[in-house]
Amino acid sequence: MRFFRSVLGFYVNGSFHVSAALISLLLYTEMLSGFQVAPSYYGALFFGSVAGYNLLKYGVEHWRDRPRPGGRYRLIYAISLLSLLAGGCFLLKLGFRFWLLSAGCVLLAGLYALPVMPGFRNLRSFGLLKVPLVALIWVAATVWIPVWGPGASLGWDLWVESGQRFLWVCLLMLPFEIRDMQTDPPGMRTLPRRLGLPLTRRLSWIAAMLFVLAVGLKDAPALAEWVSKGVAAILTGLAVSGSKEDQPAYYASFWVESIPIACLLVYLGWSQFAGP
């Protein structure tokens, strides 16, 4: 059991799980749209997100608070560096448009994470900007870049998918926002702090229903999409409803981040056994 916990901790703390969630959403986009995503982009996104999330978690703020981290972080630092190199190698196999769009995504992530603003602040320190900025980055990484990179354009269905994806990621961020209420500075007025937990939970269910109903805006959505997004909405609503400031260790960082993976598996399973 101790070995299993160590492996799980390394998998989650090393940002492999959140990267797997991103890859799941990218594959979900490919399945829904029928658009073939460049294989190298999968590698660039996975390894780039491992390096990026580890930079966020163990970067500037970590060094400021813990100038001499213990040896347990050294392996994560090494893997982050290797992931950065691997992501760069995959990106080099893609065209210039991929580089340009990815650079824009990295710039947004940098403004979110790095204290480049006066008073050693970043965009993350502006409470209401945290969630929509992360959601925008995830939409760009899993919908816009894989389509715009090869020079294609977004059709109506992918624009609808972009709106749904943005709303869904915003909802998936709420358990993290609730968890971080214990550690965020008092002046950081995040959505749960502004609205309170009861209202946040109720509104999350309304938003989850809107997320599913938006499937009807698409031209000819498959039944598998309705089912998978219905499951995703229920799981997301339950995740927000079950969130509290004192959460179990892996409630948000493992179980909540597993919801996109579960949604993809439901879609693939329904398509395989019940037809599209």
Which helices and strands appear, and what pairs or packs with what?
Blueprint: H1 2-13, H2 16-33, H3 39-58, H4 60-65, H5 74-92, H6 96-113, H7 127-148, H8 156-179, H9 191-195, H10 197-213, H11 223-241, H12 251-255, H13 259-273
Characterise the protein shown here:
This protein is mainly α and about 280 residues long. Helix content is about 70%, strand content about 0%. The protein has helices spanning about 1-15, 15-35, 40-60, 60-65, 75-90, 95-115, 125-150, 155-180, 190-195, 195-215, 225-240, 250-255, 260-275. Helix 2 packs across helix 7, helix 3 runs antiparallel to helix 5 (about 75-90) and helix 6 (about 95-115) runs antiparallel to helix 7.
Give the gist of this structure.
The protein has helices at residues 2-13, 16-33, 39-58, 60-65, 74-92, 96-113, 127-148, 156-179, 191-195, 197-213, 223-241, 251-255, 259-273. It has 276 residues and is mainly α.
> Which segments are poorly predicted (pLDDT under 50) over 5 or more consecutive residues?
none
Number of helices: 13
Estimate the global geometry from the Cα principal axes.
Answer: globular
SSE arrangement, N to C: HHHHHHHHHHHHH
Query: For the residues shown, what is the average pLDDT?
Result: 87
What percent of residues adopt helix (DSSP H or I)?
over 70%
Residues in β-strands, percent? under 5%
Task: Please summarize the sheet with the most strands.
Answer: none
Rg, Å, rounded: 19 Å
The N- to C-terminal Cα distance equals 40 Å
Q: Which structural class do you get from the secondary structure elements?
A: mainly alpha
Instruction: Please tally the β strands and state the result.
Output: 0
